[in-house]
Amino acid sequence: MNNNWRFLYTGSCSGAMNMALDDILLRGVQDGGRPVVRLYTWDPPAISFGYAQDPYNEVAVDRCIEAGIDLVRRPTGGRAVLHWEELTYSVVAPLNDSVIWGQRISEAYKVIGKCLVEGLQRYGIDAEIEKGHVGTERHPRGKTATPCFSSIARSEVKLKGRKLIGSAQRRFSDAMLQHGSIIIGNEHERLTELLLLGDHERLEWKKELVNKSVSLRDYAENEIDQRHLIDCLFAGFSQEFNCSVNVENVSEEEWGHASDRMDCWRISPSLDRLVR
Prior knowledge:
By secondary structure, the chain is α+β, with helices and mostly antiparallel strands. The chain has helices spanning 15-30, 61-67, 98-101, 105-123, 191-194, 199-212, 216-219, 226-241, 252-260, and strands at 6-13, 36-42, 46-49, 70-73, 81-83, 86-94, 128-129, 157-159, 162-171, 175-183, 247-248, 267-268, 273-274. α1 crosses α9.
């Protein structure tokens, strides 16, 4: 396995910049660059959608604008996530090591899940990997459930039986991108206020999120020390990947390319469509 990983902490960026940067780092790995573990946060808060979702059938865009919440498309699949009071991870790696990543998405989920659990346990959080097969929740109207944190899947990370980290992965012919939300506080539950739901459905989904998701703050003895948490998570990845941690900076060229591609991921309410 490649043990020459880049460890990046890029702080808080807009949703469009975060997704553009994940995309640029993926392109770099596809061009032969080193694999990447990145940690980051969001400012302002944003709702991200899987690449196959139609945002305008999911959320009340006017409510999001009033609340100062950005809307972005992810390069990966999955369901809607409100990124607020969280730390996000992304892993970008070539697929030329089938012993580590396996042939299926679930195998890479398990490897990355082990890294995350190791890091959280170093911080003092008794997280674990979901080992069973948990079926997808169904939307009251018969559609697949909209909120990511309303259900937990095999190899996702849980705490006290409730979902702590929601992840999504996309594989290409030569590389993979997996990223996910590590919930620090409970603002993610406000997603139900922004969904296109009736009052009864909204209450039902609020209950689902409260009952099936959990935040670090719910079980931490003290206020979350984000810098220490970042160090612990990087250490968890370094142990699993058998490499040392040397936190680097994103290059000016990468920042520039990401800035040029922000509109590819930003959902523009004024145009009522995704700018491509």
